[in-house]
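Box S1 | Example of a co-folding query
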Amino acid sequence: MIEVKNLTKRYGNHTAVDHLSFCIPQGQIFGFLGPNGAGKSTTMNIMTGCLAASEGQVTIGGYDIYAQADKAKKLMGYLPEQPPLYMDRTPREYLAFVARAKKIPAKQIGKEVARVMKLTKIVDVADRLIRHLSKGYCQRVGIAQAILGDPQIIILDEPTVGLDPIQIVEIRDLIRKLGKDHTVILSSHILSEVQAVCNQVMIIANGKLLACDTPANLEQQYASTVTIDLTVEADSQFVESMLVKISQQHTIVKQFQGRTQAQIRTQKGQEDAICRQIFQACRDANSPILCMNVNTPSLEDIFIQLTQAKEGA
Ligand code: ADP
Ligand code: MG
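Box S1 (continued) | Returned holo structure for adenosine-5'-diphosphate
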């Protein structure tokens, strides 16, 4: 269990993290989602004891990250945004070095390094110099060092940044696998990334918490307006005169080849009634409906709406 209370970090006049409070129960894949500069890395650096906070408290499994740093840190493995890889070592040498730094008993190091290399699929490159590895492999070496010693909590800062789509899928699979018996916290500025793997999402912008919930609940809670896309085989005058009677918010998108495309915006819950009225009006006028599609906002829309609203504030 991780508890963050009132966490604040100031750089001079600039507040990078602004009174952030949240709890992460055990066994979750928890996503920090926010645009660049939101304060994700700063928060992770503080949570892992790499950076001092200006205010606030972090406890990891009941241990205070400052007062009981050794015990708290032992529970966590961290992949920072820029993993501190030693370019002139091989993954095997580097991981053995990290294992010693993590005070893993000498006798167990060989076995533990082999375990994490197998899990992160870097056995093939175990004895090549890290400087000769692709970005995808470097990232896996970074994850391998985070999970050495099998900490309960694994914190990954932008684990898929700079990877190609195939590598992204592989890292996601690994995160899901780790999430089965660990608490995993990952950050991303890309919503689909977080949505794909996380049970819980925390949206932050300008160091402030905007929302924290499951992806499904966020969609439900914030999806207050829906849009209906409509194409009717009729001219725009007919469609306009029909929609004026049915909805307060609509636009004619275009008229082409004897058909008219329009979009209607409405409060959630009203969409069925509007669709029925459109159907009846078109049937009465003998104008076929070619398309009628109800769209609820995606989590992407919600993310943009939330973060932009704050930026403008
Ligand atoms: P994110 O990881 O979400 O992109 P960061 O935590 O890296 O965001 O940064 C949050 C804010 O703090 C940004 O505005 C960034 O410019 C600022 N910042 C980060 N590190 C420093 C630093 N060492 N000195 C001054 N400002 C910093
Ligand atoms: Mg960052």
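The mean pLDDT is 92. Residues 2-221 form a domain with the Rossmann fold fold (CATH 3.40.50.300).
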